[in-house]
Known about the structure:
By secondary structure, the chain is an alpha/beta fold. Helix content is 53%, strand content 13%. It has nine helices and seven strands. It has helices spanning 5-27, 132-162, 167-197, 204-221, 223-242, 245-267, 272-278, 281-302, 304-307, and strands spanning 37-43, 54-57, 60-70, 77-83, 94-99, 105-110, 123-126. It has a seven-stranded mixed beta barrel with strand order 1-4-3-2-6-5-7. A hairpin with a 2-residue loop joins strand 2 and strand 3. The longest helix has 31 residues, at 132-162. It is elongated, with a radius of gyration of 53 Å.
Amino acid sequence: MKISNETKVGTLTVIAITLLVLGFNFLKGKSIGSKDFKLYAVFDNIKGLANSNPVEINGKQVGTIASTEFTPDMRLIKVGINLTHSYDVPDSSIAIISKDLLGTTILEIKLRGSNHYFVNGDTISTRAIPGLLDDAMDKLDPVLYEVKNAVKALDSVLITVNNVVNPAAKNNIRNILDNLTVTTAKLSASSASLEILMNTQTGALAKTLDHINAFTGNLAQNNQKVTNVLENLDKTTAKFSNLDLDKTMNLLNSTLADVKTSMGKLSSNNGTLGLLINDTRLYNNLAATSNKLNLLLDDLRTNPKRYVNVSVFGRKDKSGPLLIPLPDTVNAPYKKP
């Protein structure tokens, strides 16, 4: 049965729309062909977590982020988690948000021992984990505090020494203290600048890391599109490689050989067409017949009574027939055989 072009186009259109819908749902983090196991988690700050970001347990991806939406008072954010299988997750486990080495925000489930497990639709507990910048500031602040305490203790020691040294030594020590004060002031200014630089909200370093995070997030979201493009290109090249070019070329060569053979027969005196094209006898016979016909017509025109006599008492034409056509046949002159 021959399939019409309209049926083929309609079938390809349905397949293309189906693939488009399935690909769009896949990019949104929805599983295709399997039933999801969904959990929920509530955070006050999701740190750039977006749909389709991975969900990991012990470093292995077990699902994706399905949704992120505010609670009614907009103070908290409710995160929907799609697990690819119905894993036995203990109900005492917690969910935290972290970033990998490439800066991609992920949700990690920390397992805790328990004899009871979550069921579909449960809400998992969460815990805030400070970022790298917060850790750096937490470690830097105690150091600055200890430096200030050391300066105060040193100032007390110098006051005590000032009471026992001579005026020249006092002047020297005063200069040292002045220099130390300037150094402390510069150190405080440097620490303030460093704090501004490393501020998680307005710092230049934080903004740079946010830009890098946004770039890597976009790259991760478009990873499937790049994969689809490469797969389509691979399928196209595979189809080209599967074409039977040898068979087509052999058929073309055979057709050209038949045409060449036919043209050779036309050029020779073999066969009816060859004789019609190459043998001059047919032309000569036709030319002779044409001349004879012209002679007959001229004789009929000049001596009609020889051929048609309608007179009852007329005199019979006793003149002889024409031997050559009359001069008015100049456009078709008689050719002597």
